[in-house]
Structure formats: C-alpha cells, structure tokens
Design brief:
The protein is α/β, with parallel strands linked by helices. The protein is 44% helix and 15% strand. Helix 2 links the parallel strand 2 and strand 3. The longest helix has 18 residues. The structure holds 1,3-dihydroxyacetonephosphate (13P). 1,3-dihydroxyacetonephosphate binds next to strand 8.
C-alpha cells in the first residue's frame, strides 16, 4: 500500500519570534512551487517552532499546506501547573500535531514511557496527532539490545490506546546516537527498526492498522541523505532537526520525499 510521507521540522529551542517570521515566510515561498501530491498519497509538511512562536507561525501558514506542531505538552488540560502548556491550548492556536517523548525530553527532563503515554492520551482526546519518538542510545545499540529497547518503548507509550486512537498516531524512530551528530543510521539499520515497530503494532492491534501507520525516521537527516532514507519501504517521512532551520535544506528534504514517492 502507498502511505503518505510526513516531513516535520523540529526546530527545538531555536529561532526567536523575528527569526520565526523570516524562516516561515521563506519556507512558505519555497513550498509554493512544489507538487506535494505526486502519487495517490501526498507529502505532508509540518513545522514545529517553539511554543512562544506558535501563534505567529499559525497566522503565517494560514491557507497554505503547511501544518503546525508543538514540541511538547503537559498531560493535564488546565490547572495549577506553572510553566506548562496543555493539548487544549495547543489545539486552540491551530496545532494539528505535537511531538511527544523526544529523546531530549527523556534525557534532560526525565520523561518516562508512562508519562509519555499519559500525554499521548491527552493529545488524542484533544484531536492532536502525537508524533511519538522512540529510539535507542549508542550504548544500547552497541550492546545489541536495540530491539528490546524499541519493544519496551513502543509497548509502554502505546499502553491502553484503543483501535480508534492508534489510527491517529505517528511514530518517529530516532536513534539517539544519530541526533545532532551527523551520524545517520544506514538505510538498512533504519528500515529494520521501522519494520520491527510495524510488526509490534500489528501484534498489538492488527496488520491493517500497522500497514497504515506513518513511521518517520529522525537523526541527522539532511538534503544529501534524505532521498535514500525516504526511498526505503518502511520509512514514511522524516523528523528533521538541524536541517530544518534553513529553508533551502528543509524544502530540499520535502523535494526528496516527493521524488521518493514517485518511485
Ligand atoms: P538532527 O536532525 O539535528 O539530528 O535532529 C533530529 C531530531 O532530534 C529531530 O527531532
């Protein structure tokens, strides 16, 4: 089956409001000329600026094919949680997606599979599509436990999700050792883990659901390596860090997704 490809730019903690305006306008201009529905399925484009720029970014992309995501959220909708932002609030400013469980959140903010699971449920009940990140560290890969780690993470974060809910998620495989390091997983390494994730979802739910699941790859994706990665059978998109901070490399990755889709 042909799945759509989803290219999302995770800006992380980069770009102030002025730089946001410049970057979004540049992306908008470059994306205009792209034919993002080259086959039966399409290439979907998402930008994930910092919280503080979401409202402005939402205004700038109105009427375009670019969609908006946040990089995190809390699992309660309202209340005395100083400094936090809820799914309801993200939805209200025009977000359609939210990245959850990014390895930087797991590493620096001690997010666990249990917490990420609560956030996923809250995102879904507010009709936000969670982009759920999983991935092994270098130590884990070297010691040969990648499959176990991915299995534990996938089962943990998806725990208790219904058949209907599971159809509305995206998973991003981001090997921690490939993030911001310039080291990309080989296409084979990545595709194998993507196949494992799809198999896990088929065992937990059904093959019909697993077959439709969008699984992105993330970790040093750039304009040079995107086409090869995106041409793999089970790689349905990219979660791009560094290379999304420049409009030319980000749109070139979108272009690679379009080309890969035509194959
Ligand atoms: P880089 O593309 O900078 O390696 O970051 C990947 C990432 O963490 C996207 O979420």
């Amino acid at each position: 089956m042909i799945r759509s490809k989803l290219i999302a730019g995770n800006w992380k903690m980069n770009k102030d409001i002025h730089e946001t305006v410049t970057l979004v306008n540049e992306i908008k201009e470059r994306v205009k000329s792209l034919e993002t529905s080259p086959a039966e399925a399409s290439v979907d484009i998402v930008i994930c600026p910092p919280f503080i720029s979401l409202v402005v970014a939402a205004g700038l992309i109105k009427g375009t094919q670019i969609k908006l995501a946040a990089q995190n959220m809390y699992y309660q909708n309202d209340g005395a949680y100083t400094g936090e932002t809820s799914a309801r609030m993200l939805k209200a400013v025009g977000c359609e997606y939210v990245i959850l469980g990014h390895s930087e959140r797991r590493q620096y903010f001690e997010e666990t599979n249990e917490l990420i699971n609560l956030k996923i449920k809250q995102a879904l009940s507010n009709k936000l599509t969670p982009i759920i990140c999983v991935g092994e560290t270098l130590e884990e890969r070297v010691s040969g436990v990648t499959d176990q780690i991915i299995t534990t993470q996938v089962k943990g974060v998806l725990s208790g999700l219904t058949m209907q809910e599971i159809e509305k998620i995206v998973i991003a495989y981001e090997p921690v050792w490939a993030i911001g390091t310039g080291k990309t997983a080989t296409t084979d390494q990545a595709n194998q883990v993507h196949k494992l994730i799809r198999k896990l979802v088929s065992q937990l739910y059904s093959w019909a659901i697993a077959e439709k699941l969008i699984i992105q790859y993330g970790g040093s994706v750039n304009a040079q390596n995107a086409f090869e990665l995106l041409s793999q059978s089970d790689i349905d998109g990219a979660l791009v860090g560094g290379a999304c901070l420049k409009s030319d490399s980000f749109t070139s990755i979108i272009g690679s997704a379009i080309e890969a889709m035509k194959k």
